[in-house]
C-alpha cells in the first residue's frame, strides 16, 4: 500500500484493529520520534485499555520528559531492552511491583519513576536468535537488496565523539557476538531465503582490530560463501587488515569521516587520521571492497575554512574510489556530549535538517516540534555566526548531487576550482548567487536536486568561458 504522509496512520489504524493485543511496543529513531508519539496516541484511541511501552536510543535519552508530556506512553524501557521488556510483561501479568525491574521508567501517582540502570549484557551470544518467521522479508527487498539482509553483529563503540548519542547509550562498551553465533544466523537465513550477502550491524565493528582479525579468520576457516559489509573507522584500517577482510568475504565498508578539518576533528574528538584516508580507500577499491563515507556540515565552532576542508576531503574520497559520499547537517542529539554545552541555545528550523526531514510531511508535526526542543532536538540547530550566512541545506544537497549523480562533473571539480582560483565552497557560492539572480527562490531541502540543468548552463556559460579566457 501507499503509505506516504497521512495514509500511513490510516493504514496503521486498520492494522491495529485487526489485533487483540493490549500491550504495544514501539521503538524509534530520533528523526521520527514525533510520529512515534502520534502513533502511540492512535493506539490508545483505537484500542481502549491498551498500554504502550516505548524503547530505543531516543526514548532512553528523553524518558522523563516523554512520560511527563505524553500520557499515551505508559512505560519506557531505558537502555538495553531485551531483559527489561520480558520482566515488564511478566510483571504486568503477575501483578508485581514494577519498581523492582531495573531499566524501566513509568508514572506513579502523576510522577515519573525510574528504577535505575540495568547492567549491560556481557555476553551477547546469550540472546536467542531472532524469530525470522515473524518477519516478511520480501517487504524489505528491492532490486538492489534482493540478496541482502542485515543482522546484528554487536553493540557499542568505544570512541568519544562529542556529536554521537548512540555511544553513550551503550556506555562506550564494545561488544561483539562470536563468529560462530553470527555464522549460525547467516546459515539459518541462507537456508530459509537463499540470501548470501549480509550487513553486519555494529556501530564500529573494527574498533578492536584483534577481535576483527579473529572474526575474519573464523570465516576463512569455515569456508563460508557469504559476503558481508560493516561500519569502521579509518584509524582501524590498514592494507593488511583490508586484505584479510576481503579474503573472508567483506565487500563493503562504511567509513564515518565527519570532517576534513584537523581542527574540527580535535573539537569533536573523532581524531580520524586524515592523511590515511586516500590510501585506505584506494586499497579497498583495488580489492573490490565498496566504500561509503559520511561528512557532517555545520558543527558548532566550525569555520568556513573547516567546511572547505571537508568538501575537499569529499572530493579526494570520490576520486579515490568511494561509491557514495553522504552529507548531512549537524543535529544536536540529546545524550551527545556536545548537546549539553548548547542545549539552551537551540533554534528551531523548518525542513533544514537532513536527519529529520520526513516528519514535516505529516499534519501538526511542526507545531509539536517547536513546543519542545528537549524532546525534538534533531529538528533544531545550534547558531554558528561563522556559518550562519551560508545556505547549508542548499550546499548539502548540491554536493550530494555533484558526487553521487554526476560523477564526471564532480571528478573535474578540483581542476575547475583550481583553474578559477576558487575553493569548492567558493565555486558553490558563485553558482548559488547566479542561481538566485535568475529569479529562483532559495531552495528548500531536496529541491536543489532539480536544479542541475541550471548548473550545467552556468558551468558552460560562466566557468568554461572563464577558463578558456584564462588559458
Can you put this structure into words, describing what you see?
The chain has 19 helices and 15 strands. The chain is an alpha/beta fold. It has a 6-stranded parallel β-sheet. Helices cover 42% and strands 15% of the residues. Helix 1 crosses helix 2, helix 8 runs parallel beside helix 9 and helix 9 packs parallel to helix 11.
Give keywords.
471 residues, alpha/beta, six-stranded parallel beta sheet, five-stranded mixed beta sheet, 15% strand, globular
Strand percentage lies at 5-15%
The overall strand count is 15
- Give the helix level as a range of percent: 40-55%
SS summary, helix count: 19
Describe the sheet with the most strands.
6 strands, parallel
Distance between the termini: 57 Å
Structural class: alpha/beta
Q: Kindly state the mean pLDDT as a whole number?
A: 88
Radius of gyration: 24 Å
Low-confidence stretches: none
Q: Which strand order does the major sheet show?
A: 6-9-10-11-12-13
Global morphology: globular
Topology diagram in text:
Blueprint: H1 7-17, E1 23-27, H2 33-46, E2 51-55, H3 57-61, H4 63-69, E3 75-77, H5 82-94, E4 104-108, E5 111-114, E6 148-152, E7 154-155, H6 166-169, E8 175-176, H7 179-193, E9 197-201, H8 209-222, E10 227-232, H9 239-247, E11 250-258, H10 262-268, H11 277-287, E12 290-297, H12 304-320, E13 324-329, H13 337-342, E14 347-348, H14 365-370, E15 380-381, H15 392-405, H16 407-411, H17 413-420, H18 424-437, H19 452-470
Helix pairs in contact: 1-2, 8-9, 9-11
